[in-house]
Each structure stands twice: as structure tokens, then as C-alpha cells.
Amino acid sequence: xxxxxxxxxxxxxxxxxxxxxxxxxxxxxxxxxxxxxxxxxxxxxxxxxxxxxxxxxxxxxxxxxxxxxxxxxxxxxxxxxxxxxxxxxxxxxxxxxxxxxxxxxxxxxxxxxxxxxxxxxxxxxxxxxxxxxxxxxxxxxxxxxxxxxxxxxxxxxxxxxxxxxxxxxxxxxxxxxxxxxxxxxxxxxxxxxxxxxxxxxxxxxxxxxxxxxxxxxxxxxxxxxxxxxxxxxxxxxxxxxxxxxxxxxxxxxxxxxxxxxxxxxxxxxxxxxxxxxxxxxxxxxxxxxxxxxxxxxxxxxxxxxxxxxxxxxxxxxxxxxxxxxxxxxxxxxxxxxxxxxxxxxxxxxxxxxxxxxxxxxxxxxxxxxxxxxxxxxxxxxxxxxxxxxxxxxxxxxxxxxxxxxxxxxxxxxxxxxxxxxxxxxxxxxxxxxxxxxxxxxxxxxxxxxxxxxxxxxxxxxxxxxxxxxxxxxxxxxxxxxxxxxxxxxxxxxxxxxxx
Length: 499
Description:
Elements: E1 2-10, H1 14-25, E2 30-34, E3 46-49, E4 52-55, H2 66-75, E5 80-84, E6 87-91, E7 94-98, H3 102-126, H4 135-143, H5 145-151, H6 153-160, H7 169-175, H8 181-193, E8 211-215, H9 220-232, E9 236-239, E10 241-249, E11 254-261, E12 266-276, H10 280-286, E13 287-288, H11 294-298, E14 302-313, E15 322-325, E16 334-337, H12 338-341, E17 351-360, H13 365-368, H14 371-385, E18 393-406, H15 412-426, E19 430-432, H16 435-438, H17 444-460, H18 484-489
């Protein structure tokens, strides 16, 4: 079968669906091809397991961009909840509030460990490592070796699969900028005697925001509503379509796109424009003629992720949205509590639903472990942490998420720059959007803004806006107005390997 649309969108995640919705609102012909047979939303989807709803990774709906907030409300006007924010850290059998509460930390660590932390901090300040090059050295200089081992080393290495001795100090300086031990303790003491999240005079501290907005049935609710609106405006959203080849014909100025259906049948689409949120490596392999930057695309790397959802008889009701696991004796990196995102995520209050998050590389031991073994691992670790007894778990499922986090290794920026130059020159009506489509570690709102700008360029018939300039504040400028250096300066940071 052969079909046509003015614009073909690859991927029904936040970026792809935003682009399609913006084009459909303008009355333009648009079709979205999504590989998943059932779900839309990409990593922002909500998975239904026997009525229990699972958020892949946790998604707080917050943005500095009024345009993005207005778009969320336009797509999902009546289904947002205001939810309290609470996170804790688990270490050595105890839970610590996050952000730090000084007296609680002192009590949990004990007088001797607390004294060792202070002594280690003073020693590091008196005898710092000159010109620190690694995260380990930078944190040790600023917090001491003892606090590094307790609150930095284990979780960072779980998430990124790299030793803290291999991660560049530049990432630590950006990620933990403006924080020092004395300031943290002073702030914790102030919060012990003053309402949390307020500075003297009433200004809210950004990192201490106490509530956030959340769709009552998870983030996928937003993208399911977007699909309904796209279809209502005449657009097409087709699931179960794996794009295999994209061929550009310079003479006709049309794309021919081949998609494989679940039953093995092939479907062909033609389009004047293609918006791709597919991973750059996958897109480059599918392009015809093959781009000269194909080898650069193949060199891009990703950090992958899986979640084991455990449904258990309800023990003690936990208030946390999630708990960060800073314990090296377990593999789990973070635990989500879905009822704290929204009560509607858990259909029966007699049960608790927890998401055990494991960070891995596709094909490694964790990723390849059979589901039954992963469930057994998660049950043993949740019991060791003390949140749920293993024998109280009555149901479970495993969800794997490939390409969850683009890896920023020492060569990635050069690879992406070469791919971008090549594709913009060779394929003038190809528009890259979103986290994997641009190999940029963007939040949901940033991915949406790149799609809004791509849609505006399509409507205008020329590249008036540069989606690559969307920065950490979800701001943008017309091409040539906001410098790319400024955009990169604000880009969300991920670890880089130490030189």
C-alpha cells in the first residue's frame, strides 16, 4: 500500500507528536509512524500492567517556557494534578531527606561517621588535589573523601556505567555548581526553623520546589490526548510501523519512506518533509543515499535503562515520589512510588506499586537477564532496602527502554556536528527533533520546543528558526540571533570522560 502526506513524522514521542499537532493545527497534511504496537509517548509513555500504571523514568511537568505550559494545558486541559514533591536518599540502611536536613543527617550517620565527614572535609580543604581532572578529585576537594563515598560515588556510577575516576571534573563543576558543605548545612538549619523552600523575604528557592503538576493517569495520558487531537484535525498516527528506509529524490523533491508492519507487510509513504525523532544512528542507517556521515552516526553511544515494577500487599504507606539508592550492595539505582505520582496510578489501595530502576547498556548482563531473574533480583533488593517484604510481592513486570540517555563521550560533539552538516546539506527537508533525534540530553519540554520550531520552519517553507539553539531554559532564537555557544553553555549536562 502507498500513502502520501505533506509531512511524515518518525516517532510518536513528545517531540514527534508535538510537531504533528502543531502542523495539524495549521491545517497541514501530516502522518506519524510509530514502531510500538500499543503505546505512544516514547520514554514518556505510561504502561498499563493489569490496571497498574507505570511511568517510565518519572516525569514531573515543569517548564520555564510559558509556551510549553500553555501547550500542555491546551492538549490536556482538565486532567492535571498538583502533587507534593518528596525524594529521599537511601544509604547504609537509613533514609535521608533530599535536600539535606542537617540534624536528621547527623542522627542517621552517627556521631563518629559525622565527625569523620567533617574531618575528611577539613583535610580536603587544607590539602586539595591541585587542578582536579576527575569527578572524584573535584568532589573530594569540595566535600571530602568520606562524603564522596557516601553520597556521590555509588549512584553516579550506577547511572552512567563509568567510574568516578573516569568522569571529567567539568561535569561535577556544572552539575553541583554553587554548592558547598557549609552552605548546605546553613540552608538545612534555616529550613529547620523556617518554612521549606522560602528565602527570607519569601522568594522560592528553585531546587526546593515542593510541588509539581502531573497527569492523573501518568505522562502517557498527555500523548494519548495529543494523538486524539491530531486525528481529530485530519492527521494520521499509525502504530506498529518500523521505518526501514528513507529515500530522497532530488528531482521530485519528495521522500519515499518504507515501513515494516508487525505482520511483515511493507507500507510506503511519500512526503515533502520528514521530521525525525528516531535515534541518529538508526536514521543514518535507513537513509538513501547513505550519508557520508554514516560512520559518525554509528559511533554514537547510548545508556539504556530497565524498570522492574513490583505490585505488593500494602505495607507502610510511603510518601516519596522516588528514592535514590546510594548503597553499593544492591544494583538498583532508584525506586519510584507510583501512587505518590498520582493515586490513580494504583487502582487498588490495598497494594503498593514500586518501580525498581536499573541502568545498563543494551546487551550487558542486566539487560539480557531473563525477566524471571530480574523480578527475583528486584524482590530480593526491595526486601534488603526494607520497603517491601519479598513474600508480599504478588505481581511484577519488566520494561526495557533502549537508548534512554545519549552518551556524551569525548568524541560525540564532533560526530553530531558532522552529521548535522551532512544531513542539512544533503537532505534539505529533513528536520531533526527531540532527545534521540538530535542526540541531546533534553528534558520533555526542551524536546517539544525543538519540534515546535521544526513545525514553524515547515509552515514557513524555510529554516527561519534553529532547533539546535533550544537550551536548558527551553528558550530559542532565530537562526543567527542566539549564538550556538550560549545554547551549548546552557545544555543539560551529562558526564564526560576525563582527559
